[in-house]
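Entry 14. Ran structure prediction on the chain below.
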Amino acid sequence: MQGTRLDTARIRAARRVIDPVFLDTPLYRCEALEPALGCAVSIKLETANPVRSFKARGTEVVASQLAEHGSRAVVCASAGNLGQALAWSGRGRGLDVTVVASRFAPAAKLDRIRALDARVELVDGDFDLARERAAAVARHDGIRLVEDSLDLETCEGAATIGLELVGPELVGPELVGPESVGLEPVDTAPSFDAVLIALGGGALATGVGHVVKALAPGVEVICVQPLGAPAMTLSWRGRRVVTTDATNTIADGVAGRRPIPAVLADLLLVADDAVLVQEASIIAGMRMLLDHAGLVVEPSAALGIAAILEDRDRFAGRHVVTIVCGSNVDVDAYHRWVGAASTRRP
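Output, structure tokens:
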């Protein structure tokens, strides 16, 4: 995909350093969802791994590079999932990991980060304030700062999901070397015609979007963000960085206020659309994934289903893929959101 910061050959090469436990995640048609949604739906399940999110695909690349160059310490800001993934990847390579997070982040995510031997520093503010603090720690201690979505490793690690979506025959070890450079789009088009991607900082959307547009350009790339955290979507629509003063959404994993210009530039090249969805639709999507797919997911992972629920006519008769990107959810909050209503059928 010309023009983005990402490189398709590097994305293929990333598979060599990512622990196989995070690769080749299930992709399957979920027919039980289809009567209520009016379209064919396939699920790319990125929760069946040790950190229950897609983020380790990127942190595996980061940690591998740090260990190779003899670095011993790293810091990141996280709403929870990146920190957990970096802690997992760092622990296996002997890295000293510090995660800066909001004091209001889900306790379950913070507890898991600590359980993976990382140090957690909390700030009295949101994710963007945690980003500022992490940058200060990196400067003071002279250590690597991992910036989700800005650092190419986080985008290109996530982009390996795109390889598995559009060309599973292309991701074997024989196609990760120099001979893969310049490979043409796949000859056989995927069975799906759209992919719905949760949009937060942009690593997942730009990574998967880059690969889809490079290898299966006919597939529509649709990014989905909560109405209560619209900064990146507003930026995409306006083709310039738009910041917001606050966020108000249960989807903590995508609740940023300050888009990164370089990430927006990539998103403008790979996304066909960016839509905003209401909180009620996110909760309804979580209920549907529990009722019809047996999946307990965090709110960010239900954004794709929410988008279909809010615009059934757009997707009627089509085959879409939604990336279920995380399942690290506070149990008490999940019960409040889904509750007894999970026994209903939409």
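The beta strands are 27-29, 40-45, 73-77, 96-102, 119-123, 144-146, 194-198, 220-226, 273-277, 319-324. Will compare against last week's run tomorrow.
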